[in-house]
Amino acid sequence: MNYAFILTALSMSVVYGQTAKDYYDTGNKLNNAKEYENAINSFSKSIELDPNNAKVYYSRANAKYLNKDFKGAVEDNTKAIELNPQYTQAYYNRGLAEHEMVDDKSAIDDYTKAIELNSKYTLAYVKRANSKTIVGEFKEAITDYDMAIKLNVNDASVFYDRANAKAKIEDFKGAIEDFTRAIELNPKDGSAYINRGFCKDRLLDKKGACSDWLKAKDLGNMDAYNLLDQFCK
Prior knowledge:
79% of the residues lie in helices and 0% in strands. The protein has helices spanning 3-16, 20-32, 36-49, 54-66, 70-83, 88-100, 104-117, 122-134, 138-150, 156-168, 172-185, 190-202, 206-218, 222-231. By secondary structure, it is mainly α. The protein is elongated and about 75 Å long. The chain is built from 14 helices and no strands. It has a domain at 154-233: Tetratricopeptide repeat domain (Serine Threonine Protein Phosphatase 5, Tetratricopeptide repeat).
């Protein structure tokens, strides 16, 4: 046991008048108050007193992510994973940061690890599907969206994103079905009407396409004006 280190840590806590847990708790409060820079500083002080606590690195990573320091978020989540290789949420959050850094291949790997650790991690399926769509793996993305929906995701955005992936592989009928479900869940999403209209147009349903674009226009979608002028006169 490194008694010198323990004594140093104890003396630091006396000097500052707070323990590592105190700084950690303060950091969480500051983070919740959206005071990200101050939260990061507080988590850093906690790490100085207790450098082997994975959850503090994870929490600092979250603050850095919210403060748009994505590289720092990746580094802190990596440290959290080194200290706790079973840290499911750290893999997921590192994936989020990697996505923001336009490194979706790495993000997919991290979402996959999160799913390996928790096979019912719905958001990990959704985010992995989003990243797979970005890198052009549309069929694989659809499979992930399917799994998320099977796990009782009733979110308009998931149906919308699966519809777009289906459209990419020219499954326009399936895309229309998903856009329709997205509209049922969020009737004021003009972009869903726009994209459903495109799919109907590809299936030579001009009347249906124009009807969707007209609805999008009523919802204030500016793209609809051009589409109606160009294709629906």
